[in-house]
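user: Please supply your own:

assistant:
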Amino acid sequence: MKFTDDQIADIGEEIIKVLKSVYDPEIPVDIYELGLIYDVQISDDVDVKIVMTLTTPNCPVAETLPQEVKDKVGEVEHVKSVDLELTFEPSWNKDMMSEEAKFELGML
């Protein structure tokens, strides 16, 4: 089944809501606001590709956080598959955080 652009946009919003429910355990801010999600691509068939990073390559949740993201996004209605790519290029830095995240962490 092919989805319309509007349906894809709605599914994308649901995926972002899910991403905002995943937290880096060391920082009280969700991974989306932290800027750890570099890209979310959704095909017409609702195959989802997520490109994300971690705050550091040695992050204690390097094994579990990407799996949690994959599992939660996979539960979004209509999502057929989730391909998650973990990258450290470019490496994450504090400038990638949203204003909300910076405020939350007292950086503004």
Notes: Strands lie at 37-42, 47-52, 81-86. The chain has three helices and three strands. The longest strand covers residues 37-42. The CA atoms of residues 11 and 94 lie 28 Å apart.
